[in-house]
Amino acid sequence: MELERVGPLLLAALVALCYSNSLSCGFAYDDIAAIRDNRDLRPHTSLTNIFFNDFWGMPIKKEGSHKSYRPLTVLTFRANYAVHGLRPFGYHLVNVLLHTLVCLLFYSYSNQKIVLHSSLVHNNEQRQDLIEVVTNSVDIEVSSVMSSVHNA
């Protein structure tokens, strides 16, 4: 098989292997407040609340509000709640799949950039060095702690 086909498959397998241990984990840290205790995720709550409440489900105009406005993240949690309820496995699975997608998009983008700037990369060792520099700060929290998905 060509590297163009094998590379993404190996990357997806590696991401799945690295994060598969999170599938059996429960909610952690801020997940309790952001997911389990957030009424904006429930189907009986008006969908428009997402646009007037903070990340934690509190009206954003309230004095005690955190003022963290992340309606897209809360909307993904609400969709996840509709499918998985409060079972953490589903949230972890969605995060691993999203993280895999981001890694594949980054892989594709990086390959295009390396090809475009191939005059800067003269051999495989330099290519490897460039990839290591660019991917050095990969954040594991994004896939393991659901309430950190907005950091991706």
From TrEMBL:
Biological processes annotated in GO: protein O-linked glycosylation via mannose
Any one GO molecular-function label of the UniProt entry: mannosyltransferase activity
Coiled-coil positions: none
Gene Ontology CC: one annotated term: endoplasmic reticulum
Signal peptide: 1-24
Keywords: Signal
Superkingdom, taxonomy of origin: Eukaryota
PANTHER family linked: PROTEIN O-MANNOSYL-TRANSFERASE TMTC3, PTHR44395
Protein name per UniProt: Protein O-mannosyl-transferase Tmtc3
Organism from which the protein derives: Trichonephila inaurata madagascariensis
Species classification: Eukaryota, Metazoa, Ecdysozoa, Arthropoda, Chelicerata
